[in-house]
Amino acid sequence: MNIISVNSKNFEQEVLHSALPVLMDVWAPWCGPCRMLGPVVDQVALENDHIKVVKVNADEAGDLAQKLNVVSIPALLCFKSGEEVKRSVGVISKAEIQKLLEL
Fold first, then answer.
1. CB-hemisphere CA count at 13 Å for 60?
2. Residue 2: what pLDDT?
3. Domain count of the chain?
4. 1, 28, 31, 91: which one is catalytic?
5. What are the φ and ψ backbone dihedral angles of 62, each rounded to 5 degrees?
6. Based on CB atoms within 10 Å of each CB, which residue in 34, 48, 74, 91 is the most buried?
7. Helices (H), strands (E): how many in the chain?
8. Could you count the other beta carbons within 10 Å of the beta carbon of residue 38?
9. Which of 7, 5, 24, 11 shows the shortest CA–CA distance to 86?
10. What is the domain range of residue 42?
11. What's the mean pLDDT in 25-47?
């Protein structure tokens, strides 16, 4: 599955109106923990075709990160039917991400 880059312009279409549950990774290129978590999120995306995985670069889409009340990164947000249902902040394992996806 492709990972989609999301910003304030396509957030509503890609996340809020998604037919699939959405895992959102909020990250920044300068963030060491984000760079550690990124490949794990990529692997989860490849192994789970029943979810949509999107990434938000907090530097480029700071307005969206602020709107979502993301104050620390990396942050993983889970959306189902247009509503945020779970959130995790910091580096977590692949198993913990899978558990987060149990919606």
1. 12
2. 79
3. 1
4. 31
5. -60, -35
6. 74
7. 4, 5
8. 17
9. 24
10. 4-100
11. 96
pLDDT at 22 over 90: yes
pLDDT at 102: 85
What percent of the chain is predicted at pLDDT more than 70? Answer: 98
Please identify which of the residues 34, 53, 56, 68 carries the catalytic annotation. Answer: 34
Here the tokens at position 67 are: 């709107």
Task: Name the residue among 89, 85, 83 with its Cα closest to residue 31.
Answer: 89
State how beta strands 75-80 and 22-27 pair: antiparallel
> Considering the chain, what percentage of its residues have pLDDT values greater than 90?
94
Res. 1: pLDDT tops 70: no
E runs forming strands in the chain: 4-5, 22-27, 52-57, 75-80, 83-89
> What DSSP designation does 74 have?
S
Asked about 78 being catalytic, the answer comes back as no
